[in-house]
Amino acid sequence: MKLSEFIALSEEEKRAFVLQQGVAVAKRCLPGYQVFLYQFSYFYVETYCCQQTKEILEYRTIYSTKHLKPYLESIPIDHLLNT
After folding, report:
1. Who contacts 2 (Cβ-Cβ below 8 Å, separation ≥6)?
2. Residue 39: how many CB atoms within 10 A of its CB?
3. What's the gap between Cα 1 and its chain centre?
4. Are the beta carbons of 58 and 48 closer than 8 angstroms?
5. Which of 31, 74, 70, 71 minimizes the C-alpha distance to 51?
């Protein structure tokens, strides 16, 4: 699926596509939210989930790896540098 096709989906279709076709690759926490990152062939999708209800409140698409910085910063690499 192309990014433009994903954007045109309804909220229900986005949810089904992300949960069925996406590869969960990372998670981060923000005040009031858990954000899950899913990988697809040509883009990534962040799902913003309410911490209380676990409901997906928003989908954000990422088409450039430069926007993955919040996830990359959370990967511990100290053990790789100390060898």
Report:
1. 42
2. 15
3. 16
4. yes
5. 31
* pLDDT tens-digit map of 18-58: 999 999 999 999 999 999 999 999 999 999 999 999 999 99
Give the separation between CA 45 and CA 62, rounded to whole angstroms.
6
Q: Give the pTM.
A: 0.82
For the chain, what's the residue count? 83
DSSP 72: H
CA distance 13 to 83: 47
H/E stretch holding 49 reads: strand 44-50
Neighbours of 50 (CB within 10 A): 13
